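$ fold --in a.seq
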Amino acid sequence: MNRKKFWRSVMGLSLCAALLLSGCGGKGGKDESDLTSSPETPEEETNGEADYSKYNAYMDLYDSLSEMEEILIAYFMNVEYAEDFALAEGGDYGALKEAAEFFTGNTYIAERALEYAEEEPAYAKVDAAVRALGDSPAKMMDALDSLASYMRFNEFEQDSLARAPEIHAQLWEAFQVYNQYYGQMMDAMDELAAETRDDDLEGLLDDGQLILYHSRMMIHNSEDILENIWNQWEASLENSDPEAELVLPEIDRTEIAPLFAAFNTAYEELTAALGSQEEREKVFSGPVAEGATELYTTKVNTLYVRMGALADALNEGQDYSEAYDSASDALSSMIDGYNSII
């Protein structure tokens, strides 16, 4: 297992995998465009409305790959990265239970994405990555389903790992292609997201959608902060001795300090907008408006607190890995919340 994947496990997930949708509708009326559609290959329209079925299929695969990657990290921390099964030095097979026991693969997601790779609109880089992955995601899902069942019912204890080599062989076979193109797929999807992330921000402001606008600014600043930190981690890994003990690198705060300042400004503006009945009515309505407002406000405040804890850890030279992971989780939650109100 490469050091980057091991390092990823120390910090938790590198970047939030949640999809941030765009939209100016408010009150739950969604503008079906999203921030990851290629500006050069817009979705085809069906009955006057944009059709994002292909993109959504790719996003489902992206989410599934993210989930499987977390299990694979835990697996190869405890099992030798080799064709023949053996526990890694200091490895504990039982430690895989927490990571894998509740996994349930859905091979239809992988099969559907592969079918869409041949359809319009073209997302050239993602299409190529999906084709290259082929049926390896479906095979990996099957292998991890086997592992999950083996761990869920403690069969690994009952048979003293008798089935472990069989499951490892199944996983290793799928892993050969999967591991080769996994990064290509994830990078291509991330690139799509970055290309059009800010496309409709000005429109939100022009339409007076202050809650949505300042939410997006707060989310974007959080994403930029976490990405900057992650990039510094990766650079530290690339410049270190592969045999050296992993050490959490000190983060250069030159670029992220103004991002934290912008984040705080966005939070203050968003809090003010959420405190305005006029602004709330543009986004929240109906019998659940009050509850929805409270839930979303809680997500906003949680992200603010978690990002503040991350800033404190960085400024005080403390171990920031847990704070980073917590901030990433809070960001994912706020993105989910945002997507539910547009």
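$ fold --in b.seq
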Amino acid sequence: MNITSFNNVSIQRNNPAFCKKYIDTDVQIRNTNGTKSDGCFVEYERKSTRDMMQIETLAKLWKDKTPFIGAITENFKTSRGSMDGVHLYGLENTYGDTLALAKVLDSYDIDDGTKVTYISYVQSSPDEMYTAPSRHHKGLGETLVSKIVQEAKNAGADKIELTSVNEHFWESSKLFENKSSNRRDADKILPSKHFDDYIAYVDNKTKPRYLDACG
């Protein structure tokens, strides 16, 4: 039986009564000491009381330490109804602790009708942010985004569009393109032709050769 815990409450993974969706339970997370840890890629459900408690707790604990937690959790906490296409994805460790969150919307581009996945916000735990002095992991944002890219690919999206800030983060892979030639338009896209490239870019960082060189 696959058991995990959050705030010392034991739960069974994929238990319908719990509702949290475990999309990938074999995620490799890079550690700052050059090793790897196991993690899970999950989607939180508004209809789940436990998920609601977990997100409300994160919102309180991260409120004064992270810039985007309020924007990420606001709709999740205030609406138990259907919000078509809106997803709250998370990267968790094997204890059920949330290491990173992302707010995502599946929709259509009003200009050309193509199917698009919008990444609105990506936020790491305050203890795991790049500037945190005692963080245990690195590349959490990239790892979470790579799983979102895989979900977009599985859903048949034509592109991923970013409304999330942090220019350096998105520039590092060299795969995201400017949405338009207008310099004032800061939005970037990842066309579907580069989905596999981004997934491989992140996956390669968990290979022994990369860990040995950069750990």
